[in-house]
Amino acid sequence: MKASKLAEIRDLIKQQGYTNQLQNGKVTMAVSISDHEHQASVKFFQGKSFNAVWGNIESKLKGIQSNFWIKIDLVINTQGKQKITFESELKSIERNNYWRKGISFDDSFKYALLESEINANALFKPSKNHVVGVNGAQMTADYKSIENYFSQSRNIKDKLNTKSVDMVWVFNTKSVFYDGDNIYVLNDEGLNIGSRITPDLHGELTQVINQGQKYLKAQIKESGKFAYGYYPALQMVLTNYNTVRHFSSIYALLEASQYVHDTDAFSNIKRALDYGLENLTITKDNALFSVDHYKKRQDELKLGSQAMIILALCKYEEITGDRSYEEQINQVLEALKYFQRKDHGYLHVLNTDLTLKDKFRVIYYDGEITFALARYYQLTKNKLAKKYLKESLDYMVAHDYGRYHDHWISYAVNESLTIFGNNVDYMKLAIKNVFTYLDFIEKRDTSYPTLLELLNAANKMVDKVNESGNDQLLEQYDVDRLRKMQTFRTRHEINTGCFLPEVAMYFRWPEKYLGGFFARHDNFRTRIDDCEHFLSGLVNYDYYVYK
Predict the structure, then answer these.
(1) Residue 499 pLDDT
(2) pLDDT at 536
(3) Most buried one in 47, 326, 335, 370, CB count within 10 A?
(4) Which of 450, 459, 453 is CA-nearest to residue 483?
(5) So what's the pLDDT on residue 524?
(6) What SS3 class is residue 184?
(7) Cα(453)–Cα(540) distance, rounded to whole angstroms?
């Protein structure tokens, strides 16, 4: 590693301050190094001064290859706690993996763990009764796994006996990360801890979308089926599958591939489309139905999947000009009559014999099919699709769907306003859908990518309201807050849900996850639909704000 880069890293750390904080009379720093393919190796250093510690770090890094990922952590705010007090504090944290401090089991930091190590290796475990989104995590330290981590990953010969430990030391850090080209100061507060600080949102957004598009494209196997997802912190592969997510991920990948101008991706995407049409659909009376196959229960036909097939096929034709799927698009439209109710609402799930299974499953399905019909009509000018679209919108207006705050409803109304123009009822529906939800959006701590999708569509809708001369519909609402919230959620998503190098390096096989998107509170789950929602939101934000 070049001496000039080492000096730059050292100076950046010193600029953060706190270099004189002592624990046991010493300054403590940690070095994390990854070659991209393997989990970062972590080593703590102590000395009587910053310069003394840095000298040891510099000696270690001089022989490191220049393209390796390197993170330096300066330990600050060390606080000794009774182990029982620490355990109580850990248990009180509502969400899994939301413990955001380092911990040492001795005051000399021989047995110390960075926050990133703890969470990436699932060293703190939620209660066996924990259900994500239902109840609190009730986390406890997995002391056996912690002891094994020190002996196996850190190669410490003297095995830690956590049972004999009465005190622990929790700490924060000031951190700098080097990715082989650029050096970043990392966030050290709140939910953004461990992610890079950069004033160039547009540049960072472009990089995240590029990496995300590569990641999602790489999940398409030779067969055309996606690698469905992973629990990286648990080193588990998700083996189930979902038809809605198959086609919706294709749609998002099309958006992202168009954004990054990756025409080579279209062959992968076509392979995924063909796999879906061959393996995840059935045909009855010239009508094409999506089908979800289950091992232990009956297969079923979902309205949401019908919508996603339409969206994926229409987007593919729009971008590539390839009209070879027009027959299938028309067959999906033909199938909608089996889902329609007399009041113009939709049945959500059918059995494969076309009998009713569930009148209602999730609110998403109504917005999804309405959005799909709008896209279908824009591409084909099919009068039946327009009729279905208007009936669906009128049904949502009559049944106050604005109270659901669903991003698909915003997508649907925004797109439909290009078709039905000055329809005040549709505008009111979309306005309520977002503006009565801003408090929730502002306070939501998880990355929750569909919120950005909602905000993107809502901002476009506001522009259409203004263009139509119906400004009075927005008089009681804070449009400026809506605009600012859109940027706030974009930054929040990047900081809390992206496998940037400084995050990925602490997991096994970091390059495998680089560019993916995750749900921290669900063991860093990265599933194709997580990538789908992040990519769609970030791409559409960039188009709206910068292009």
Answers:
(1) 97
(2) 98
(3) 370
(4) 459
(5) 96
(6) strand
(7) 8
* Of residues 114, 201, 279, 288, the one with CA closest to residue 488: 201
Q: Which residues on adjacent β-strands are paired with residue 41?
A: 33
Q: How many CB atoms lie within 10 A of CB 16?
A: 16
- The set of residues, in sequence order, having a beta carbon less than 8 Å from that of 19 and lying 6+ positions away, is 13, 27, 50, 74
Closest to 387 (Cα-Cα) out of 408, 416, 359, 367: 416
Matching residue, tokens 């510099």: 58
What is the per-residue pLDDT for 1? Answer: 82
Quickly list DSSP for 78-134. EEEEEHHHHHHHHHH-SSTT---SEEESSTT-TTEE-HHHHHHTT-EE--TT--TTT
Residue with tokens 């040891």: 56
Question: In the predicted model, is pLDDT for residue 421 greater than 90?
Answer: no
Strand pairing report for 236-237 and 229-231: antiparallel
Residue 314 CB burial class (10 angstroms; 0-12, 13-18, ≥19): buried
Cα–Cα dist 437/453, whole Å: 13
The size of the chain, in residues, is: 547
8 A C-beta contact, residue 377 and residue 336: no
Full-prediction pTM beyond 0.90?
A: yes
pLDDT at 351: 96
Amino acid 442 reads E
The one-character DSSP state at 350 is E
The gap from C-alpha 241 to its chain's centroid, in whole angstroms, comes to: 18
Please give the helix or strand (H or E) that residue 335 lies within, else none.
helix 326-335
Structure tokens that stand for 75 in this block: 């330990």
Strand 356-358 to strand 112-113: parallel, antiparallel, or no bridges (unpaired)?
Answer: unpaired
Give the burial class of 547: count Cβ atoms within 10 A of its Cβ; 0-12 exposed, 13-18 middle, 19 or more buried: exposed
Distance (Å, whole) CA 530 – CA 528: 5
Distance, in Å, from the CA atom of 40 to the CA atom of 36, rounded to the nearest integer, reads: 8
> Please, which residues have CB within 8 angstroms of residue 34's CB and are 6 or more apart in sequence?
40, 41, 68, 69, 505, 510
